[in-house]
Amino acid sequence: MRKSLAVALALGLWTDSLVWARQPVRAAQAMVVAQEPIAAEVGLATLKAGGNAVDAAVAVATALAVTYPFAGNLGGGGFMLVRMNDGRQAFFDFREKAPAAAGPNMYLDKDGKPTRDSVVGWRASGVPGTLRGLELAHRKFGQQKWADLLAPAVKLAREGFPVSYSLSQSLKSAGRVRANAPDGSVLTAGGILTREADSKRIFLRDGRFYEPGEIFRQLELATLLKRVQERGVNEFYEGELARHFAREMAAHGGLITYEDLKNYQAVERKPLEGTFGDYTLITAPPPSTGGLGLLQMVNILEGTGYEKAGLGSAAATHYVAEAMRRYYADRGEFLGDADFVKVPLTSLISKAYARERRASIDPAKATPSSVIKQGRPTPGESNETTHFSIVDAAGNAVALTYTLNGGYGSGVTLPGLGFLLNNEMDDFTVKPGSPNMFGLIEGEANAIRPGKRPNSSMTPTVVLLKGQLHLVLGAPGGSRIPTGVLQVFLNVAVHKLNIQDAIDQPRFHHQWQPDKLYLERGFSPDTIELLRAKGHPVEPNTFGVARVEAIQVETIDGKRWLAGGQDGRGDGKVAGY
Ligand code: DON
Question: Which atom of ligand 1 is nearest to the CA of 289?
Fold first, then answer.
């Protein structure tokens, strides 16, 4: 027996996962992991009151719209993946849609240069989908009454809640700090939250920033939530709230009309499925490109033995980065809303296609992105964010990622309604070859069309091990979401780390263009030198590679445990019982 193991056993420190690693929070029955503690507790209370995972998701998502205005929302959209304990699966797509008046060149000036109206202000928003998505999922799987599930959000908005240190910092930074585009051009002269009178009035108090411990009340939002609680979601999309929404839009040069709201539909889609050894990955289909990326990357890595070089080694990091690079090259070319363009989906996630892509990886040398072109999938087939994970006592699971896109979205709060609008139009290809907010370069398949949904990186995922629920995970982080989710999955499935340790490890990211390997802090200087020697232009990644919130189902001494991993890159919470 190794000496360290013997010492660990003697000290009683042995667990099923690695000794000396940070341990996850464990609970026997049910669990919520969310990026804001008050909303996580709301979810836990719903589960304790007998709600199932979908009920808890409705309660958490609406509470986050109050307590986490950075990304929690009614004015944005996202995806919810459900896996019930009887094996039923559903993917609810409530991604925003381009308004009917939108078109391909709407964000270009007369010289063909992007105006950046896709990022800030009244013209940046797609038609929001969040409430329709929650309603659809609740109608199919919910057990508790809609009105009861919205009650915590109404109360939090009306009575307020104490501002945390991180909310105070976040509001200050969104109020003060100038936002720049990836090319360095200035997007907002001041902060995103101080451009518009109503945002400034609500998110600052009398022109002064909220300090930690002060109570933050949102009375207009409380009134709106109360109406949706009592009258249902139609009130938001077809009722007086929708008319008010459309009037304000028209008065400020925005594009979303009453008809756009009325016509908005959330849709249920079939999740994508793939395998990696004994693991089955159930994940997001288009208009997310993240699930497809996750499957493409695990397919490329499967069976290569790349991991033998060791977690965090230059050789393993290099190999995974090369898989990432190849997925992003395909993404730019082929991916768009499959309701509008033909996406060669089956081929892109096939093992045969992965073999072809893998063949071009040199284990010793980086392939410059300039020579990596998209692959040749077989044609002709049909066609600043937050994530939470929930498992209930019956073993039903929800992974939900939703967003306003940038932190605090477009910066526009609808007067009289009290919620922020998204800037999701920037996820479309504003101009082929021109980078979006996340530096992604995409093509025609993702061009703006009325009623179309923009490409997304959001990757809510459920993983089964030998057919049993094993992981529920996902993340915010823009283009870094699929690579962040990939690394946490690999750390569990390949390196056998516990879920907290898997999340804690330093991560890296490559997205083909720009041809840079972004490394989080934690890679040693000699590892970085080895990566440079392989030809990687290494860049420090100052803002982290996604924030993964996950639950792992463990069996310890024959008993089922839920293990919650919370990402220290943010300050969320694991709440379980
Ligand atoms: O759908 C997407 O890919 C982006 N709108 C997500 C934005 C995001 O994750 C921002 N958070 N850091």
Answer: 3
